[in-house]
Amino acid sequence: MTNQPTLRARYRSLRQHLDAPSRSRKTQRINQRLEDLAVLTNSQRIAAYLASPEEASVDAFIKLAWHRLQSIFLPCIDDERGHMTFTQYHPDAPLKKNRFGLLEPADRTDIAQASDLNCALVPLVAFDGQGNRLGMGGGYYDRFFAEPTERPTLIGIAFSEQQTTAPLPCEQWDVPLDMVVTDTTIEKFTR
Question: 99: domain range?
Fold first, then answer.
């Protein structure tokens, strides 16, 4: 079994080397799948993210959700406490870069707990056929969604190249995904 840093490097490289036209087509397909996904259509409070340059963007879905009058919440890193929170994101709200260079809401007054959310769109580096997710290694999502009884539906977002055929190494604290949406498929996992 390959270790997590090696897997992370391999799948980040695959993601980074997608050419611009392919990335654009794949991102458009992912957002089209999100648009029609029943669990999202029926949700009022959705956690999302603003993608790094190498991640699959869900910006088009965020705009659609606002059009549907759904509330969107974005992750914010609390450096002092070493954890992540989710803050409501409004159109034209000011954003600031966190220590990882990712944009997050500057105003953190409307914070949601995991139990307040119906669904969460979760970025990832790699995923396997059992719904295990390899993230960037900080454990922020695993800590935030640790309590199973308060967890919303977790939907991984990835390019199809990010799926591994071998099971990913996982620890007891790793939080599994309920489904993954890629440019080619929607995979649902049962526990």
Answer: 4-188
pTM for the complete prediction? 0.93
Q: Tell me the pLDDT tens digit for each residue of 65-124.
A: 999 999 999 999 887 777 899 999 999 999 999 888 889 999 888 899 999 999 999 999
Question: Per-residue pLDDT for 169 more than 90?
Answer: no
Q: Which long-range contacts (CB under 8 A, 24 or more apart) does 140-144 make?
A: 140/75, 140/77, 140/83, 140/84, 141/75, 141/84, 141/175, 142/173, 142/174, 142/175, 143/83, 143/84, 143/173, 144/75, 144/83, 144/84, 144/85, 144/86, 144/114
| CATH code, 14 | 3.40.50.10420
> What is the total count of domains within the chain?
1
